[in-house]
Amino acid sequence: MHNDLDVATKRLISWADTWQLELATDKCTVCRIENPHWQISWDRSTPEYKINDCILKYTNYVRDLGVIVDCNLKFEQHISTVVHKAHTRANLILMF
Questions:
Q1: Among the residues of the chain, which ranges form H helices?
Q2: Rounded distance, CA 71 to CA 76, Å?
Q3: Would you list the domain boundaries of the chain?
């Protein structure tokens, strides 16, 4: 299964090289998306993925286009962040 991600990263590197684009590898991560209700029978080890010799870190959530999604495809972290920002801004307005 991790072979698919290896192939995808190699294609991404090739595409970026073709278009002379530099990848921000320090911002790249791996997020293993799983359904907690699945009966998982495959190997649960964490393979090492690389882009241009930079090892990608594993994370429990990712932020894409401003939306935070966790490895169970839930949005609690995103909602919490939005509510916290709104609360902070409301407090700033009410202080004046």
A1: 2-18, 76-95
A2: 11
A3: 1-59, 61-96
